[in-house]
Design brief:
about 110 residues, binds heme C
Length: about 110
């Protein structure tokens, strides 16, 4: 009986963790669409008028895939070249969620 209960608890914990990840990803997606998509495109390709004009490289390019989450968070906070800085506009949590969402684009 005890084993069964523990198994049940483990299962519930696992399900809760999966749901939380999904929620974070959706939040990241929403923020990305609102703040980043105009330059970086829905698929991260940078294939938008603004992205092309500013030469935003695809977020799915090997050079960026190789960078750590911390690197991408740092660029998003401080900006780079024509890329605006978001430290004052987005919370650390929001930026983390966006980077998590960018990682899902890389896998497509
Ligand atoms: C106004 C257009 C614009 C917007 C909006 C924008 N970016 Fe960028 N982004 C750029 C440009 C241009 C570059 C290329 C910068 C360079 O390499 O000089 C870039 C580069 C990047 C890079 C790659 C940096 C690297 O390591 O080379 C990341 C990551 C990134 N942007 C994330 C974001 C995120 C996240 C958002 C939304 C919060 C966002 N960007 C919004 C224009 C934009």
């Amino acid at each position: 009986m005890k084993v069964k209960t523990q198994l049940g608890i483990a299962l519930i914990a696992m399900m809760a963790a999966t749901t939380l990840t999904a929620v974070a990803q959706n939040a990241g997606e929403a923020t990305y669409k609102a703040k980043c998509q105009m330059c970086h495109g829905a698929d991260g390709s940078g294939n938008t008028p603004a992205g092309k004009a500013m030469k935003a490289m695809p977020l799915t390019s090997p050079a960026i895939v190789k960078e750590s989450n911390e690197d991408l968070i740092a660029v998003t906070k401080s900006g780079k070249g024509k890329m605006p800085a978001y430290a004052a506009k987005l919370s650390d949590g929001q930026i983390k969620e966006i980077v998590a969402y960018i990682r899902t684009l890389e896998k497509k």
